[in-house]
Design a protein that fits this description.
Blueprint (H helix, E strand, L loop, with lengths): L2 H8 L1 E5 L10 E2 L2 E2 L9 H4 L10 H5 L12 H10 L4 E7 L26 H10 L4 E6 L29 H23 L3 E4 L10 H13 L25 E2 L14 E6 L16 H12 L4 E6 L9 H17 L3
Parallel strand pairs: 1-4, 1-9, 4-5, 5-6, 7-8, 8-9
Antiparallel strand pairs: 2-3
Helix pairs in contact: 4-5, 4-9, 6-7
The structure holds 4-nitrophenyl 6-deoxy-alpha-L-galactopyranoside.
Length: 335
Amino acid sequence: MDMIDFFTRSRFGMFVHFGLYSIPAGVWKGREQGRNHYAEWIRYQALWPDGGAIPDGEYRALASEFNPAAFDADAWAEEIRNAGMKYVVITAKHHDGFALWDSRVSGFNIVKATPFRRDLIRELKEACDRRGIVLGAYYSHWLDWEFPGGGLPLWPEIPEDPPLEQPSDAEFEHYFTAKCLPQVTELLDGYGIRLFWFDNWCKCSLLTEARLEKLIDLVHSRGGIVNSRIGVTWNHSGGDAAGIDYLSMGDNQFPDKAIPRPWETSGTFNESWGYHRLDYRWKTTDFLLKCLISNASRNGNYQLNIGPRADGSIPAPSVRRLREIGAWLAVNGES
Ligand code: JFZ
């Protein structure tokens, strides 16, 4: 199957943010994280606005508690299918560096570092394959807060943030060649992943054109596809992004006209991507359907996110909306 043809026709997909951050779920030692409410950022935001981050050892220790025993790949895949979604992109590795598969490259993963010891990506891939759903991977290629040389957060637009000292070019090269490229290779060759969602949003000198090209060539060499957020040199909303297969809009951004290339908007049911126990700002099903229709009518996809709880269950408000959307599509949609 040609992946970009599939992607262009699919219209509706799921995004999943799941990882160690699903345990604190936006609250660290009784305090709600500050500034933005992206629970997957808690390692860098728990102590805002006082500054500082959760120490590496303390964050790492979450792995010994991570045991999503209620995770059921078939149950997830059923929700995806019944919602009318054709694919799912999961945070195989988010910025914290923790991998949801049995990686030989880094032991900081769900099989080797947790009591759960099951390969979530493997189980989900098989459940998706059984239903003709395509499994894609979010892979944080720039930020990695675990591996020596991995990128650190940069928010140039927020002057009050204390600047973090970035790794040197040589240090980042070490991370890129010893972790990033080998792990993406594992996802390609060990799991058959062909749909990739990479993430970078500000000008970072570590992500050189040469490195981006290497990563893009690697994915392309197996027939896989990559999104525009792989690097800022590729304009999110258009431009001549050579090498890019599809555009990713900014979070929850819905363009008001058609775009003459494959594209998607990733969006949330509430505010946070990862599960946040205090995030009650749920959007209505009507609103979410309008977002889907708006994108579909402009030849784009809508990639709607769930943030499963640490036990692996999908929060009830998301399940309810997924089922309401699915019910509407079953009557009014085209399959
Ligand atoms: C990124 C991540 O940092 C976040 O945790 C989540 O995974 C989200 C889907 O992507 O956040 C971004 C990235 C890019 C923009 C905004 C938020 N952007 O370009 O507007």
